[in-house]
Amino acid sequence: MNNHPKQPQEFDAVIGGDAPDSRAVLGGIAGVKSRLKSGVFELQVAALTDALNYGNPGLDLVIEALQDSSYKIHRIAVELLQQTEGKGKQALLGCEPWLFFTTLQDWTSEKFNSNTGIINPFEIAYIVNIEQLKLLLQDPQVSQIEALICHLSGYDCYYEVSPDFYSYVDTLYEARQQLTNLKALFIGDSRDEYYKKSYIGVGDITLILKACPNLEVLHIRGCCNELECEKLQHKSLKTLIIETANLSDVAIYRLCSLDLPALEYFELWMGRTSEHSSDDTIDSLKPILFSESFPNLKYLGLHSDYADAIADAIAQSSFMAESPILATLEVLDLSMGNLTDAGLNALIESEAIINLHTLNIAHNYVSEEFIQEIKQSSLIDCLLIAHSQEKRYEGYSPSRYSALYE
Length: 406
Known about the structure:
The protein is an alpha/beta fold and 406 residues long. 31% of the residues lie in helices and 15% in strands.
């Protein structure tokens, strides 16, 4: 029988002296903890991967890593928890709800350099202008690329479609046989000013969806007065984000009528234009409120100047629809609008709200008194995100100054 102690390997945690023969391997959950505290990135990565082999104690360590000061460790913890259910899923939703879903944040963004070419097609979302995209398509590894970020120029095109937009669409469609592995695509304004929406226009996105059958993320940022989309089915799309302050009811209805059986995350920035009323907007949203188009939706973000009407419509659908949206939704995000006490109260009175994990009403017009009443009386049993509420004044219309227009 061999009684010699196990010799430490490269990534083993050890106890004892400095001499190899005087050290013993610290295994199990204790070894995982030791490696996580080591400060050595390779040891920490190996420890996080091993942690899930130790049940709940190991899962707790991965959850704790969500708060790690190192962005890389944080991202690895996110990726591991995205593969879990139960406690791991709840931890992600509680930390930052969107972390549980597939977004462009799952890739590291980097400007494309034609001199070095595609270095890592699986982990990098390459940032390109139209000329760089054409050069990227000549790279031998283009068929492996997973994510692209296409920035629009044309800052003199006020509320008109940027000339670059259809150049991108046509180029991507013509290269569809080369981009079979494309999973994530951003097209829009490069300026990421969260509360100031772009005036650079985008147009018809139909060819994008037709060209990329394996696309999982589509993120559009710009003025969407001319956004169009044919009614079609896309079996792979998991995340659809339309980031704008200008969107017609026709465009809203067409987006909500898409047949997207895999869609989990839908975020729509609507604002308000003079051409439509709240009733028109609610009618345009009905396909999703009644779960007709997106049966697997888990995250619904609707940012609008008709927030009270939308909240009331969501509550009404909970007892009118055969498959109401609140029955399966994990996160309802009504932030950056003009929601008031009345709109929030309509949601609270809907019994279906008990299915939610997170309700985000940040940057609205709900009174602090009502928020405190909700928290103290336990009127809702979900995570409530309610910071940055604006005050309402007599004779003052909050719809003029929703966060979408600041």
